[in-house]
From TrEMBL:
Pfam families xrefs: Laminin_G_3 (PF13385)
The protein, known as: LamG-like jellyroll fold domain-containing protein
Source organism superkingdom: Bacteria
Residues in the signal sequence: 1-22
Ranges for domain LamG-like jellyroll fold: 92-230
InterPro entries, sorted: ConA-like_dom_sf, Ice-binding_C, LamG-like
Length: 270
């Protein structure tokens, strides 16, 4: 009986090691690792599409494996038909994340560089302002008015991570932005304004195609739910460790000690 209890305890610890991955695949609608344009098998969304001539996927030097590259060319982008808001795939409460690296000599017709934005509006939006103008800023929008300008949050030539959660509640949507795993300020918009039938990766909405990204984007993921704080940290840490969004995190020291101790007990009781 004691041996059976020990085995049960060992199984429980092993289960803990994989629970984070199970959580991160829950509600995962779209995950592009940009080794190609295919949606990862752990997600359920459609494949992506390249629009333009100066965009490529499967390029070396990504945050995790290979990545997509962009040259700041007007209207160039990667498009996905995954939408958000009432009646769309991601729903009204959702999460979007990506790794990005702006070139040190980045240029675009508008001197602004968008990691992603909604297809026909800026209800979902994260863009960077030109370092050559003495700026190192990121900016999010939601709806027609609310926006946040984050000063000195990005460094050209360096991989960085952005994750944004949208939480709908009682007629409003709260938008929270995380850069490199750290929470920045939030904004609130009217829920009815948060909607799009698609997302542009590497450029702004269709009417503002001069804001093309110049650099690399990797590990784009979107969930139809709001990730909690531990999941947000895990998504970021996986990338830091060069692992996919859905990778099983390495066990903590405490877990390893527990596994080692249980293993020793089992050996002694054979």
């Amino acid at each position: 009986m004691k041996k059976m209890k020990t085995i049960t305890g060992l199984s429980a610890l092993l289960g803990m090691a994989s629970s984070a991955t199970a959580a991160l695949t829950s509600g995962l609608v779209t995950y592009y690792d940009f080794e190609d344009l295919n949606n990862d098998a752990s997600a359920s969304g459609p494949n992506a599409t390249i629009v333009g001539t100066d965009v490529a996927v499967g390029q070396t030097g990504g945050a995790v494996g290979n990545a997509a590259t962009f040259a700041g060319t007007t209207n160039d982008r990667i498009s996905t038909s995954v939408g958000f808001g009432s009646g769309n795939t991601l729903g009204e409460s959702f999460t979007v994340a990506a790794w990005y690296k702006l070139d040190t000599d980045a240029t675009s017709a508008a001197s602004r560089f968008f990691v992603f934005e909604a297809e026909n509006n800026f209800d979902l939006s994260y863009g960077l302002r030109n370092l050559d103008a003495g700026l190192a800023d990121g900016q999010t929008y939601a709806g027609s008015t609310p926006n946040n300008l984050f000063t000195d949050v990005h460094t050209a030539g360096t991989w960085q991570h952005v994750l944004i959660t949208y939480t709908a509640n009682a007629g409003t949507t709260t938008v929270e932005t995380y850069i490199n795993g750290s929470a920045l300020d939030s904004i609130t918009a009217t829920t009815s304004t948060i909607s799009s039938t698609g997302i542009h990766i590497g450029n702004a909405r269709s009417s503002s195609g001069t804001r093309a990204f110049d650099g690399m984007i990797d590990e784009f993921a979107a969930w139809n739910r709001v990730l909690d704080s531990s999941e947000i940290s895990q998504v970021y840490q996986n990338g830091v460790n060069g692992q996919a969004v859905t990778a099983i995190p390495e066990p903590s020291v405490t877990t390893l000690i527990g596994l080692g101790g249980l293993s020793l007990i089992l050996r002694r009781r054979r």
